[in-house]
Amino acid sequence: MNIAVVGTGYVGLVTGACFAEMGNTVTCVDVDSKKIEGLKQGKLPIYEPGLDNIVINNYNTGRLLFTTSLPDAMTQADMLFIAVGTPPGEDGSADLKYVLAVAKEIGQNLDRYSIIVDKSTVPVGTADKVAAIIQAELDARGVQIEFDVVSNPEFLKEGAAVDDFMSPDRIVVGTASARAQERMADLYAPFVRNHPRTLFMGVRDAEMTKYAANAMLATKISFMNEIANLCERLGVDVENVRLGIGSDQRIGFHFIYSGCGYGGSCFPKDVKALIQMANKIDFDPKLLNAVEARNNAQKHRLFEKIVESFGTDLTGKTFAVWGLAFKPGTDDMREAPSKVLIERLIQAGAKIKAYDPVAMKVARDEFPAKFFDEGSLALAEGQYEAAIDADALVLVTEWKPFRHPDFKALKRLLAQPIIFDGRNQYDPKQMKRDGFSYVGIGR
Ligand SMILES: NC(=O)c1ccc[n+]([C@@H]2O[C@H](COP(=O)([O-])OP(=O)(O)OC[C@H]3O[C@@H](n4cnc5c(N)ncnc54)[C@H](O)[C@@H]3O)[C@@H](O)[C@H]2O)c1
Predict the structure, then answer these.
(1) Using CA atoms, how far apart are residues 347 and 18, in angstroms rounded to an integer?
(2) Is 266 labeled as catalytic in the residue annotation?
(3) Which reaction does it catalyse (predicted)?
């Protein structure tokens, strides 16, 4: 098949590369010419395990192409995937300007039957808007061309995106068109060969499915963080509670880790967007509001715990921060809890030495330049370098190399043997035995 994927970010690049890997010819389109030029030279704009090989191999075989011109891509392709960003607007609703701009450009250039696929996460009703914009452009051109707009939300996880795309739990396709359904089933057949799991449904159902999935996962995390905060006040170790409830098959272990809050480009923005979708139709989303509020508060817990130990004036104190990305396996720092923590520590007068296995380059752009210029924030060469002479170590992202560190070395390097564990990675009893003062979440 001949496919165009518009938007070459975390979702678009993985989608394009994986379709190409299955033998399709794919043109990835992006307005960011630096990104496109870099990709042509084999330089990936994001860190995603295993993606570089697939991109480079398919580019070299000519199945994966890169361009800044959507009209050029449309000369070849008749399945057009929209995978551009849908960031939160001022009121928290999904900002559709990028999606709708692509729809307009498609309408201006469409010259034969095509399937337009919304892969971006978009509010219920967006496929209708995309269709209306394309139709308006066709009308303005005075041409009659058939097209279908399909909703095909993406469920990949950053850090495991290639595996998730190649072996999805399910593929959701929302369409009322038999022709589009057949083409989508055909396109995805190689991905679900051994376990047919493509779910066809209405367009609006598919749009809502994506939000409901992310909201459910965010709810599990916020629920567990609420329980953790209660545990702290009641003298309970939430880690034992987690093991106790996760072993119930109806609950399961996924997404019930308490910590310093969820971040990333999806959960925060999608929960906010769903709240706004509800507000717009005068429905009070009580549970979603609570999920969001708990998470916003949770991102401040580590700072609050540090202040409980060190006082509100942190002038002259230095903290080692392990982990900047919003979760392990990615360099994505959008809405990362590390940002809230570091900003608050610096506001309180502290200095930070931070280390992340892959997000160091991204971190340079995520924090204000003055933090670096004034010496409030330094990026360390390695995890142990960050700890040298620090008054405490703060674990924010549970990258594997942080899970079982050399505690003897840490004790030697830190000015004070204090660990704030924002992901409950360490055993409090062992920490005590090793001579650390240990503060976790909910224990
Ligand atoms: N990141 C994830 O883990 C994830 C998972 C599932 C779904 N999603 C959803 O997928 C969508 C994309 O997310 P992302 O993380 O890949 O975003 P991203 O910011 O990494 O990438 C978006 C890309 O779109 C490009 N773009 C913007 N306007 C364009 C235009 N008119 N033409 C061509 N390119 C254009 C941008 O330059 C950018 O490279 C969002 O709706 C997101 O909610 C993301």
Answers:
(1) 44
(2) yes
(3) UDP-alpha-D-glucose + 2 NAD(+) + H2O = UDP-alpha-D-glucuronate + 2 NADH + 3 H(+)
